[in-house]
Amino acid sequence: MFSDNDKYNNHTSSPRPEGNHSNYTAGKGDLMSRLKRVRTTRWIRFGVISVLFFLWVIWMQNPWLSLLWLLLIDIYLTSYIPWTWWKDKKGPVRTIMSWLDAIIYALVLVYMIFIFIGQNYKIPSSSLEKSLLVGDYLWVNKFVYGPRVPQTPIHFPLAHHTMPVIGGKSYIDAVQLPYKRLKGLRDIEAGDIVVFNFPQGDTVCEKIQNPDYYQICYSLRQKGIDDPKAYIESNPEMFGKLLVRPVDRRENYVKRCVGLPGQRLKIVNDSIFIDGKLFHDAENVQFNYIIPVSAPISDERWQEIGVRKDDHGTEPFSLDVAGFKFYNVPLTADMKAKVEKWSEVNGPLRRESESGLYDLGGVFPLGANYGWTRPDMGEFWIPQKGKTLKLTLGNLPIYRRAIETYEGNKVEVKDGKIFINGQQSDYYTFKYDYYWMMGDNRDRSLDSRYWGFVPEDHIVGTPMFVIASFDEERGLFDGKIRFDRILKRVKSEK
Length: 494
Known about the structure:
Blueprint: H1 31-36, H2 40-60, H3 69-78, H4 92-116, E1 118-122, E2 136-141, E3 193-197, E4 203-205, H5 213-222, H6 228-233, H7 236-239, E5 242-244, E6 252-259, E7 264-268, E8 271-274, E9 277-278, E10 287-292, H8 299-304, H9 309-312, E11 317-319, E12 324-331, H10 333-339, E13 350-351, H11 352-355, E14 377-381, E15 388-390, H12 396-406, E16 411-414, E17 417-420, E18 423-424, E19 427-429, E20 434-438, H13 448-451, E21 454-455, E22 459-469
Antiparallel strand pairs: 1-2, 2-22, 3-6, 3-22, 4-5, 6-20, 7-8, 7-14, 8-9, 10-12, 10-13, 11-12, 15-19, 16-17, 17-18, 20-21
């Protein structure tokens, strides 16, 4: 989650008039006399702040915000509002207000930075290994694609969706603003690593968030439960409460963008094709391999080549086939070459997707009978803003969630015909751009292959560099701090 632990000193508190404080108390002197008492240095600061303020108003494309300039005039020049009344007080009132003033100013500053510039983010899972590692703390640039204006503006400072310590919602969703993105430096490009709000995070089970609510519902239907929602609500001890979250309060995910709006995508035997051309995987892309062994492999040996304990387990798996024992481990091409030379390995390594040992189904769109699997998905079009798609009963499962949930329409099928908002419709024009996101740890990534497209209003930003990195499987004096990753730049794959 995003967080900030910076401490601010008193000198960073809100701007106040200089000189004799008593000259600026409310009601003393007319406008001209107040302005005459303002020092030249303060006029200069007011001028600089005013230029920055109006550039921000232009960027926001909202002229009504310019009215806030009157507030800046009073803060820096006229002081009709007694902003620093507490400075005339003595004892604990002055001390408490001094700290409160500094804290409020710091929170406002951090809030503005987090909205319009960037924010820190922790990598919680291995879906992008080895490009990003579990325990990496990233600085995410929100400016590059254009910052998204908060859709849920009333929330507890520095908390994403849950209150720290006490738990519960950290936001009030009674006030919701329409989606708006400010002008950025460029659009998302194929190969970019992107942070975004989880598209299926609109509804979550309080106690089980991975797999997500929709995957749980799909599994329950497969088990013969006709009304999964009612089943979940009637078993709170297992699932907890059902929570509904607005877009900008949903979990933050990070994946690599492999498909752009308007492109056609197909996956064949783990290879991605965009508009018929092979998409080149990231340099350190990983696939799961079945590794037959004659003896267990030590944790230290796995650690030497960079395999996490969560990924290799404590003991090899076994099948009742002549004592067949194996590990199922994600490996890059270089790691695979090293493993093949180990004395414990007693046979060729095979891709998990080619082994026949695992069920590779349950992919997007859930419930459709396309016969798609994780390594093989038929060709489909990625929706593009302003483009019109001919809808059929055959392709509706692919686009229904985008039309219905992300773009706010009611979709029904009656007598073999498609109705949108009560009107029969054979065509639909999309109002958002959509993206296809996948992990570099290809067989251990919950990505677009399971939940589909990422709408543009879910996009947060792109990681710029690693702030710090901690190996959760090592001790403090045994390589826990990854010094070689501090301030390391996060590279896209073009």
